[in-house]
Amino acid sequence: MAEFDLIDLIHKRCAIERADVRLGIGDDAAILRPPPGLDLIVSTDTLVAGVHFPEMTSAQDLGWKSLAVNLSDLAAMGAMPVWALLALTLPDADRTFVEGFAGGFAELAAQHRVALVGGDTTRGPLTVTVVVHGFAPPAHVLRRDGAQIGDAVFVTGTLGDAAAGLRCLDPRDAQANALFHAPPETREWLISRLLRPTPRLAAGAALRELASACIDVSDGLLADLGHIAARSGVGIEIDALELPASSALLALFDAPDRLALQAGGGDDYELAFSVPPAHVADVQRDLARVGCGATRIGRVVAGQGVRLLDANGTPIALRRRGWDHFA
Amino acid sequence: MAEFDLIDLIHKRCAIERADVRLGIGDDAAILRPPPGLDLIVSTDTLVAGVHFPEMTSAQDLGWKSLAVNLSDLAAMGAMPVWALLALTLPDADRTFVEGFAGGFAELAAQHRVALVGGDTTRGPLTVTVVVHGFAPPAHVLRRDGAQIGDAVFVTGTLGDAAAGLRCLDPRDAQANALFHAPPETREWLISRLLRPTPRLAAGAALRELASACIDVSDGLLADLGHIAARSGVGIEIDALELPASSALLALFDAPDRLALQAGGGDDYELAFSVPPAHVADVQRDLARVGCGATRIGRVVAGQGVRLLDANGTPIALRRRGWDHFA
């Protein structure tokens, strides 16, 4: 199968028609027409087999996830997604794999009307790089550097599910046997949180005029909030007991394990954000309107770094605060 | 070394200040301000170690080439480059490698005032994906689908040098011994054409109002002209004797070998383009103004596909017409 056919096959499965795409795949580059008056928001994330996803991940799930993690970055900026590019490196020209990948990618792209406008298919170890483009009004782009002392800290959804899903898939996990005997629908739900994350795009757009800073939880809550703290020049305190847990997490893990998953597990793709006092009352109502729950989990304080506190306000030390690919 | 530090290190070496970059590296995404009234041109290319470049390639050359091959796509569209993103997958966090890579990348980025606005550094087999953004006036973007019967066909610069450079580096090459004894400056020049290609950005811009179709020569002249022929619904005839050769190519290869390199060798990153009769007289003058030579090599005809003709107008068959990563 020729390189061109692979891209074409993926493109056909992702056939979203957009008037702002003047010329899509098939030339040296795409020709796009940015809407006037908006800022262009661009992000890229790479997934490497065996590093960012288990080797056993299905092509469908990989297609979904590779787009989802990128859309999540746009969500964290409050941007509306429009265009994507895909650089797919494959060990061989496996049509079944490519069709599965295209299916998962297209399913999520269709939900958000994202057009695939460019790509490159190459031979090599399985690696997926996606680039996404979105737009947002210049005055209301969400950044990491706007948190102020006195702001409340929130997170959408529940935390730790994706990390628990990864443990369900890990044959070396000490608790694997217990997890293996959990109800199949509970296991499957946790695994789906790992492999089919939901980018919080509507929540990000709703937060544009409410949040002072925002980030998506990809490396782990404490690690990611650490970026807000560092960029904003503030400290953040998180109340361990307030961290939201799914019923699946509550059913399968005891409190210390659960906390480690919630505070340090990555791949949740929820939004963590700071909110000035004047807007705190609006957050849950405005997010509920777009079908997204949110929990108040802490506050922005003077100082630096992120501290996890127990019910008495005493700092808790976790072994693993987040994920660093080169640590 | 942490993931963030790697990106930061590359970013610091590529510190191009642009007013249209509202927020660069360091948040979930870049915030960019497109200029009004222009179309956005976006392209991506991936380079995989051992597939797209020899394993022995220096980090500096790889940094240069990974940006050059992408800028070449913008040149083929007649676009002016503005922003780049870099997804770099590395076996380990080798600071020396990253500094070398950043140096080569930054050297070319500075020449064209391209700002590095985003990226992702991951661990895995050495793979480089670059995404470039440029702008062009909507009415004058160069495409592959505009060639008309009766147009002349041109190519910039000389052909086959990069493929000859690759043979100089290949220990299995039958002619390696002769090439090894060639004058060092000749070998080095050919190798530099492979590892440090020049994206023809000024030439592409100069061709906006002259060319009817354009492509960059990455896979090999005949293969790439085949894309123009297919997209334009025409045939193309190329006169083998007209193909431009460098003095290095003339000195080191006999005529049949030279023709194979010129017509089928990839990685030249010259521009091949069609020109309506009314503009033919302007091409060489307008390109000379931007310091780029061009040669008339053939014509657009009725039919389909690309034919290479000898001095008598008889078609010549080549063993290898171009490069296809999955062929």
Notes on the protein architecture:
Helix content of chain A is 36%, strand content 24%. With 327 residues, chain A is of the alpha+beta class. The first copy, chain A, has two domains: 3-138, PurM-like, N-terminal domain (60s Ribosomal Protein L30, Chain: A), CATH 3.30.1330.10; 152-309, PurM-like C-terminal domain (Phosphoribosyl-aminoimidazole Synthetase, Chain A, domain 2, Alpha-Beta Complex), CATH 3.90.650.10. A six-stranded mixed β-sheet of chain A has the order 8-10-7-11-9-12. In chain A, strands 3-6-4-5 form a four-stranded mixed β-sheet. Chain A has a two-stranded antiparallel sheet with strand order 1-2. In chain A, a hairpin with a 6-residue loop joins strand 1 (21-23) and strand 2 (30-32). In chain A, helix 1 packs parallel to helix 3, helix 2 packs parallel to helix 3 (95-111) and helix 2 (59-77) runs parallel beside helix 7. Mean pLDDT of chain A is 91; it is low at 323-327. Chains A and B meet through strand 2, strand 3, helix 2, strand 4 and strand 5 of A and strand 2, strand 3, helix 2, strand 4 and strand 5 of B. Strand 3 (39-48) of chain A pairs antiparallel with strand 2 of chain B, so a sheet runs across the interface.
